[in-house]
């Protein structure tokens, strides 16, 4: 078999490795596949005696491998590393310059160096869509018509990955989506009105699960009396939950906090895209992790009560006894499957020491009730349990992971260290007619003193 035909076979390997790289959920896996694709491409050009192309692709192979090493440790490569490779491609392209069409190839290399450097997998995948467009255009101009087929396949699979991971079942409203997900478990009724959604739980009467969710803070004054009447009739604390995405409308929300009472302040978080769940060592030795079912019911309830309701509850939230009853009734295989809930536990020398629940909906999931027994904390147990659960759920088809915790607490810091990032904030405000109302002209911005919360 001639070297030409061997080169064509290897080029197919390049295409397959690239497609597998695009379809990965984790960045380090993508970078590993792309490194393989670059190496196969180098072999192809060596067999075809295209040594100038070998120099360019060799730089791309080194780039992707360096990015892989960083991504495997959940780190972003230093900007100087990215700039080094950008300079390499520009300098080499200047020396190899043939005609104006080479600008397309240079643009492709520079763009991919930047987009694959990013942590955001959506940016990463969009980079390969643009790469496909640039390469097809380049192939048309230089007459490389056979390459158009492989570049078109690259473009199609990049678009599929963007749709599958970034747009399919995309969450429009994180608050509504979460409470719709846990509603059956908590026996919640979500009654959607014109300007708010009334959320009432039959099982639990606390303020954390009973309020009116209002997407637009501007409707607060107009609807507060109606909400107060509805929740009073349901024997619940009259309260309104407001959400701020990207710190929007914070001054207006804080104005209502000043005039009423802030019950609790949440932060909604999402696991950073491309996050590597492997290679995390637990500081505590002899720890194992397990996806559980009703056969571990007694252990789950024990950890839930000791580690979450008592320890966490005293410091952050105040939980009712009905929480324990709710989980006792829930921990049945039929119920867990019905509500798409999966418990995970950590064991130390055979003894249960940590717990995590995952509530699934479509292609995303929420991490809830994460706790470790007090004597085992600060030793990496919860972090390792999160990694284990996320890694397992990814293999089962879950793409994105979210959680909710209280803002400005040690829990927020803990989740940030575990690569969760803030996507919005939530403010639950008790309606209080006794506090003075501020009459404000339309579009007038409140002063700094007015938006500060009361002492």
Q: Tell me the number of helical segments per DSSP (H or I, 4 or more residues long).
A: 16
What assembly state would you assign to the polypeptide chains in this entry? single chain
Strand content: 15-25%
- Roughly what percent helix? 40-55%
Supply Rg. Answer: 27 Å
Shape: elongated
- Across the major sheet, the strand order is 1-2-3-4-11-5-10-9-8-7-6
Secondary structural class = alpha+beta
Order of helices and strands: HHHHHHHHEEEHEHEEHHHEEEHEHEH
Q: How many beta-strand elements? A: 11
Q: How many separate domains make up the residues?
A: 3
Which terms summarize this structure?
16 helices; alpha+beta; 455 residues; 3 domains; 18% strand; 11 strands; disordered C terminus; 11-stranded mixed sheet
Describe the structure.
- Helix content is 51%, strand content 18%.
- An 11-stranded mixed beta sheet has the order 1-2-3-4-11-5-10-9-8-7-6, sandwiched between helices.
- It contains 16 helices and 11 strands.
- The chain starts with a helix and ends with a helix.
Summary, kept brief:
With 455 residues, this protein is α+β, with helices and mostly antiparallel strands. It folds into 3 domains: 3-167; 174-271 and 428-451, no CATH class; 287-418, Gcn5-related N-acetyltransferase (GNAT) (Aminopeptidase), CATH 3.40.630.30.
